[in-house]
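Our collaborator T.R. sent over the components below with a one-line note: 'Predict the complex.' Nothing else. No constraints on interfaces, no templates requested, no preferences about which chain binds where. So this is a plain run: every listed entity goes in together, and whatever single assembly comes back becomes the starting point for the next discussion.
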Amino acid sequence: MKDINLVVEICGSAGEGTISAGEILSRFMSGQGFEIMSFDSYPAEIRGFGKCVAHTRISTNPIYSPGKYADVLISLNDRHSISQLSVLKSDGILIYDNQPPKAHKEDQSVVGWATPGMISYGIPLNMLANKAAGNARGMNMVALGALAALFHVDKDAFTGSIRNRYAKKKQIVVDSNVNSFLQGYEWTKTNVNKTDLISFDSVSPQVQGEKLITNGNQLVARAALDAKLSFYAGYPITPATKIMEILSKELPKHGGTLLQTEDEIAAIGAVIGAGFGGKRAMTATSGPGFALMTEFTGLSMMAEVPAVIINSQRGGPSTGIPTKTEQSDFNAALFSGTGDCPRVVLAPTDTSSCYQAMVTALYIAEKYQTLVVLLLDFFLSNSIKNIDVPDKPSQEQIYANIAPNKEQLKDYKRYKDTKNGISPRAIPGTPGGMFFSTGLEHSEYGRPDYTDANHLKMTKKRYRKFESILCEAPKLEISAMDSESVDIGVVSWGSSAGAAHEAVMIARKEGMNAASFSSMMVSPFPEDELIAFTDRCKQILIPELNFSGQFAGFAAGIIKRPVERLNFITGRPMAAEDILQKMREM
Amino acid sequence: MEQIGSEYLDDKLATVKEIDFLQYRSGDLPTWCPGCGYFGIVDAFYKACRELELKHEDIVAVSGIGCSGRTPIFINSYGFHTLHGRSIPVASGLKLAREDLNVFAVAGDGDALGIGGGHLPHVARKNINITFLLFDNSIYGLTKGQSSSTTPHEQKTNSHPAGNPDKPLNPIKLALSYDASFVARGYAGDPQGLKEIIKAGTLHKGFSFIQILTPCVTFDKEYRTWKNLKENVYDLNLSVKEKNMETAMRAAENEPFGIGIFFQDTNRPHYQDILRRLNAAD
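Returned assembly:
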């Protein structure tokens, strides 16, 4: 059986159906049993004719990163596509409109900019769309038809997929889209002389059970509902807004309440209020909102009230670049706020682990009565992947509060100094459990107490919880090592981990002796495991999407060794190709 | 339980145990200055709880930072001393998650109208069913005498020794323009009247805004003193019929020392009822 590993990009102007063509392509391929990952880019502005790119990777094997370069570029708009040629492989395939309604000047046609190794197929996209439906709207479907014909993709299955996509629309919409597809298909079959080698003939991937086509934002919302979230407060901010929008629909159906607040301070305040009331509560934001929430992070830790904040990182600092991806809130997540203020930080490493991270976040927050920050980023929030349907959380993960027993309520110490640091927590409404919580340093009874001995005792108690939390860390992702030591160990976190694992896999195939390490839990950090790993590495490479190497500095402090850094702030997700190139240079 | 002053307090408590509203008082010795108006406020609060027969475990007092922030310590109930200016959002989240609880938010004038001023319009327009007690002594007390959002124009304070250059806010006018469904003013020197207002506010289904005039006996010797308050405070005596917006606004503008209920809309649904109706229709 043949393998397929293909990156297709569709480039057009906002409103030309670029993104929906990409969506149809990836849904269809997923239905055919392929692994898919797609990541679209579009302008931050709602209106206008900005450049849109639908980027889809299709593979018979597991996909860890979206792929930096495209094998195929479909141009729906030559003006935008010219700059996108830089992403097309030097032997890639260009599909373009060879009969545009207004003839392009020579330097405005994308084909004029294609380099000699590229294969260009001119298809009269606009003309065929007009022929099919009387207008140019179906150009995107004509292009998909051309793609299907060129690469020997099952025509009938594809048209079925298009019908499904528009099932809720009027029949005329369904027909014109299908007809456009067929026009593109037939014209290409008849007129194009295929010179490339890509073919889906005799490629039959195994359809493995039910697949969920989803992104990080949808998954955390789904996981939160499955884990019995009962309160959400939030303020709109890109790229986290979708989480609130999904929950605003779903949470009331599950008996919960959603509150849109006046700002992010009120959002986290309300979450902490609901947490004080014994309910599972969370908020989601991005860098600028997280900055506002900082004052409440200390209260959650100090008063030991459960709270979960999702920070979907975007380009920073300040308002930064709202629709680009970056990993530059590592320091803010771990260290923002005043005083000795430990908190849990989870950073899922790929789309499917967003579900587990969300369940774990709500569980740890409740059981350990503390703040948990869940770090997503624009890429994880928005990139689409087909994943296995996740397992629902266990009862233990859903009901995690440790309540005081009758004996403990006789002389109730809300902040009892226990072995593991967890003090049994009464929920308001419990007779005899009345207590007072404060952000002031306090005694075991919760009363203000500023003596030095008490401050030390209670600080130690709060830190002690974190020793146990480390045991709750989801499994580390460490690649197998063939030998006692490796030449290059790649240590990564968050959404860069996929590209790092992929780079290491390719490197090993090329004969390099390399291994990779990543941990979803970044605070508290599994320091011993990292040291054990890096002790076996001659050189250490840390790739991440920020300028200053925030995680690299943190990790170097743990292992007390110099590390090689690889940093990008291009706004694009981490690419395995770039890590691989760096490894070759090391 | 080892705490400073606890022996003294136990003695005191033993003698007053029979007075049953004191069951709402905690075993902690208040940290306020002798003669502080806040004693009168918590007294009225205890009595209101007693007369409403609220269960201790169903009461949560949420406060901000400042002298008023300590209030929950002195109440025998659940209490949450949060952040400066943030008692409203915390209380809102708590109430929305736990409708069964009686949630009181407490704040001072700096707390509620200065640093936390941005939350007031929204809790009012949403009509979240909490009772808000504004301890208004028109000064920052805990930081020792700086101008607050309700300090009179030109009053000399420690932050403005030459006189406060700012105009004071009018809390009642603000609450009315934010569409609070219950707006009242009480006076710390009249615990009986204040008790009735707190009771009415607690029974009101929606956001109840209660401004409480109180002196800071330590840092304001000039304006909001017991003497001035005693001389100036009077009962508004607005009849129920008159509790409409126009009358209330006029009273808010012209009667800075009038106490009583300015405005109440008993027909307006509170936030959770609105959510339930909208979600059911969806």
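Summary for T.R.: The domain at 30-281 of chain B is CATH 3.40.50.970 (Rossmann fold).
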